[in-house]
Every structure is written in C-alpha cells, then in structure tokens.
Amino acid sequence: TVLNSALTAAFVTKLNSTGASPGYSSLLEGNDGFTKGNSIFADNSGKVTLVGVTSSASFPAGPLSFDITYNGQQDVFLVKMPTTAFSTLITSTFLGGSEFETARGVTVDNAGFALIVGETASSGYPVTPSAFDKIYNGSTDAFVTRYEADYLP
Fold it and tell me: Is residue 2 part of a domain?
C-alpha cells in the first residue's frame, strides 16, 4: 500500500501465525491532513474496531456512518473491518464538533457495543439527552461515547 498525499496515515496489521510477516496490512488515510490510530480492539466475532484522530476531510467515512462529514480542525474516526481482510470497511465514521477531538481508547462489549473514550475542545460535540454532562465546560472535556452494534450512537 502506498501513502497518498496525506501527511501521515494510520495503519492496521495482522501478523501471520508465526509472527514472521504480515498476514494483512492496510493504511487508513485521506488525501490531505494527517490520520493517527490511537486504539484497536479485536473481538471474538472476527472484527477489528480502530479509533483515532484525523484532520483529513477526505478520510473514508462510509457505509453505516453516523457522520460522513468532516466537522473541522480534527475529528475522531471509528472504523470497523473484518480480521480476514483489511481491504473492506464494514463501517467508518467521523465523530466530533467544530474544534479538536481525539479518541484515546476503544473496547467492544459482549453485545457488540463500541465504547470510545477521548477528549474534545468543541462546544458542539454530539451528546444525547440522557448524557451525564451535556454542557461543554471549556478548554478540554473528556467524553465517553457508546455506539450500538451497527455503530450508530
């Protein structure tokens, strides 16, 4: 895989059973800006969930996306793909407001819900009516976002 004209790209690699060489490997990027993977989780159903941060408006937000629009500055991304081939995206979405966001970690529970932790500097970060704290408190706020099994919040 060749790096596009982006500044940096996230990558995901699955080693073969001996660990001697990659079984699958793929770059995740847009054509502009930077993309950085921060956390990955492989579940028991053969899927990988990767979160990170991107400043690329052309990052591949795709099927079953909560948000296909880059929101500005830098957004969280959430990608789900099969562990059998990293060339297919099951879903890929942006998450954020108009300022800076970054994802710091991800896990997937037994029901298939993805839980993301991170930080935001956006007053417009998407929150639900039942959120513990719905108000941006200035500077940088922590967030926990839960995506349903199909990764729609």
Answer: no
Q: How many Å apart are CA 80 and CA 146, to the nearest integer?
A: 14
Give the number of other Cβ atoms within 10 Å of residue 44's Cβ. Answer: 7
The verdict on residue 100 lying in a domain is yes
Task: Quote the domain boundaries for residue 116.
Answer: 10-147
In a domain, 21, yes or no: yes
Residue with tokens 């990955």: 40
84-93 pLDDT tens trace: 777 788 888 9
Q: How far apart are CA 85 and CA 110, in angstroms?
A: 22
The answer to whether residue 41 sits within a structural domain is yes
In total, how many domains does the chain have? 1
pLDDT band per the 50, 70, 90 thresholds, residue 151? low
Which residue did the predictor score with more confidence, 32 or 117? 117
